[in-house]
Amino acid sequence: MALVAGMRVGSRVLFRPWAWLPGAALGRKESAARGRVGARGFGSQRVLVEPDPAAGIAVMKLKSPPVNSLSLELLTEFVISLEKLENDKTFRGIILTSDCPGVFSAGLDLMEMCGKNPAHYAEYWKAVQELWLRLYLSNLVLIAAINGACPAGGCLISLTCDYRVLADNPKYVIGLNETLLGIVAPFWFKDTLVNTIGHRTSERALQLGILFPPAEALQVGMVDKVVPEDQVQSTALSVMAQWLSIPDHARQLTKNMMRKATADRLVKQRDSDIQNFVGFISRDSIQKSLQVYLGKLRQKKG
Ligand SMILES: CC/C=C\C/C=C\C/C=C\C=C\CC(=O)SCCNC(=O)CCNC(=O)[C@H](O)C(C)(C)COP(=O)(O)OP(=O)(O)OC[C@H]1O[C@@H](n2cnc3c(N)ncnc32)[C@H](O)[C@@H]1OP(=O)(O)O
Description:
binds ligand LSE3YFK7, 2-enoyl-CoA Hydratase, Chain A, domain 1, three-stranded parallel sheet, alpha/beta
C-alpha cells in the first residue's frame, strides 16, 4: 500500500490529512472539512480557531495541555483546521500561537515514539510529514506568535511560518535540540533551519542542540522580533497587516519559488523517510535514550 495519502491534480498534489486516520469516513470528513468557516469560529478539542473574516485572518491556538506536545491527535486536528482555512477564500493569513501558558509546543510527543510498534511509528511519522508539508507550502501568510518554550518539533512548526514573534522571557527558548535526546533531526528539519538561519549557524545549533534564549534567537535569525510578552499578539497582528498589504498572487508565487525545492525533497522520498524513521526509532539504543530523557523530564518536578 502506498504510504503517501495524496492525489495529483495537474501539477499539484492534494493531501488528504484524514486519509491515514484509522477507519476514516472519507466522504463525510471531506465535505465537513471543505465547508466555509464563517465568523463564528470553530475548532476541535486541541486546536482553537478564532476567525476574523472582516480582516481575512484567523488566530489558531494550540491547546493540548500541559505542553502542546504533538500527539497524533493534535497533528490530525491541526492539519484539518489548516485545510479548512486554506479552502475558505475569506482567509489570507493565520496567526499561530499557544493556549498553554509558558509553552508554545514541546515538540513531538515522546510517548508516540516510545514503546510502540513499527506500524504506529510509521503512522505517526506520516502525520508529522503531513503537517510540515501543509505548513511549509501554505498559501496563507503564517505568523508565529511564540508565547512560550519552543523546542524541537515546536521550533520546526514556527520555522515553517513566514515570520516569528517571540515573547521576551528567558524561559522561552527555541531551537532544534534533538541531539540532546540522542536523536537526529531529519534532513527536512535541517533544511528548514538552514533556509532560515544559514548553513554555518545551523551546523553549530544542530550538533550542539542549542536552545536559544530570546536575544540570541533574534541575533541568529531564528526569530524576527522579540517583544514584551503582553505585546506578542498585537505585534503579530501588525506584522500580519504588513504582509497582507502585498497582493496575494505575487506573494504566494514568490513563497512557492523560495520553498518548493525544499518541500519536493521530502515529497519525493516520503516513504523512505518513514522507513528511516521507523528503523531509527525502533532501535533499542534510541528507545533507551528517549526513556532516559523522559525520566529526566519527570524527575525535574520531584
Ligand atoms: C537517521 C535519521 C533518520 C530519521 C530521523 C529520526 C529521528 C528523528 C526523530 C524525532 C525528532 C523529534 C523531534 C522532537 O520534537 S522530540 C521532542 C523534543 N522535545 C523536548 O525536548 C521538550 C521536552 N520538554 C520540555 O523541555 C519541557 O516540558 C518544556 C520546557 C516544554 C515545558 O516545561 P514545564 O516545566 O512547563 O513542563 P514539564 O513539567 O517539563 O512537562 C509537563 C509534562 O509534559 C511532559 N512532556 C514534556 N515534553 C513532552 C514531550 N515532548 N512529549 C511528551 N511529553 C512531554 C513531561 O514529561 C511532563 O509529564 P508528567 O506531568 O511528568 O507526566
